[in-house]
């Protein structure tokens, strides 16, 4: 059975992620496999922590929501970025996590370079949410 | 997500509370009044936050 939604519902599903996480969330890049779920403790080495813009995603449109503004920060440790955790503005509660690859690598989020040196700039090149409608 | 879109969702949520006809009128009114109080608190905090940024 395939459930289908209007664009208004698809957009609302996408947009509620942004309002629930809140403004200026913290995006952490970490090495190794991601934890079992968002409630689980952090894993791997924290390689970079970015503070995202206050309004960090566009209005969802046609069931697709893309990142807004520049998502860039400096690495605080050397390592290979393998997953991200998106936390509230205090950096305490994880609300989302996923895989990270270089641009074109098929990760849930892509960066310009996943093998970074301490102090190197890390930039997010791709991140979007699609509320599917088969 | 811009302010206009957020207002649209907030309006839809508030309307949904107001039209909760399976709840007693007193429950609905109490919910809406609590919301009004919360909005006043948040508005005050938003102004104070801006004022404190200006004074820095």
Shape of chain B: elongated
> How many beta-strand elements of chain A?
11
Terminal Cα span of chain A: 11 Å
Q: State the helical fraction of chain A.
A: 10-25%
> What is the alpha-carbon Rg of chain B in Å?
15 Å
Coarse structural class of chain B: mainly alpha
Q: Any idea what the shape of chain A is? A: globular
Percent range for β-strand residues of chain A = 35-45%
Structure, explained:
The complex is a heterodimer of chains A (134) and B (56). Chain A is built from one helix and eleven strands; from the N terminus they run H-E-E-E-E-E-E-E-E-E-E-E. Chain A starts with 6 loop residues before the first helix and ends with a strand. The model of chain A has no long low-confidence stretch (mean pLDDT 96). In chain A, strand 6 (83-87) and strand 7 (94-102) form a beta hairpin. Helix content of chain A is 11%, strand content 35%. Chain A has one domain. By secondary structure, chain A is mainly β. Helix content of chain B is 84%, strand content 0%. Chain B has two helices and no strands. Chain B has helices at residues 3-18, 25-55. The longest helix of chain B is centred in the last third of the chain and has 31 residues, at 25-55. The mean pLDDT of chain B is 95. The A-B interface holds A 12, 15-16, 18-19, 55, 57-60 and B 1-2, 5-6, 9.
Question: What would you say about this model in short?
Answer:
By secondary structure, chain A is mostly beta strands. Chain A has one helix spanning 7-21; strands spanning 26-30, 46-51, 64-66, 72-74, 79-80, 83-87, 94-102, 109-111, 115-116, 121-126, 128-130.
